[in-house]
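seq:
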Amino acid sequence: MVPRFVTKTMHAYLDYPVALSLMILPFVLQLGSSNPLALWLAVVAGAAAFVLTLFTDHQFGLLRVIPYKAHVAIDFLVGVAFLLAPFLLGFTGIDAWYYWVNAAAVITVVSLNEPFQQESASHAPA
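struct:
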């Protein structure tokens, strides 16, 4: 069994820096040599991740309307999209590796998230 130790708090601490890195690193690494979408997909994903974090119900969310569980599910879908993007969009070289490394990181963090706590429903005795 894989230990699941990434807490909601740890995840919250990672969200903003990861979003910002998705918006900045594609320019630093000069992504887009195999397809201009390699640059812009990451930038758009970073902007969306930033907004998602602002609206997530965790300590660094400002509006807290998106349940944390939904946030993690969206992260997983982004990881899968990053894994498939090089194949589907023809990214090669550093463009492809950038997405594969990010996919591995996102899917790893999501898979190491602590199990979600079940909200206990109070039942009145009959």
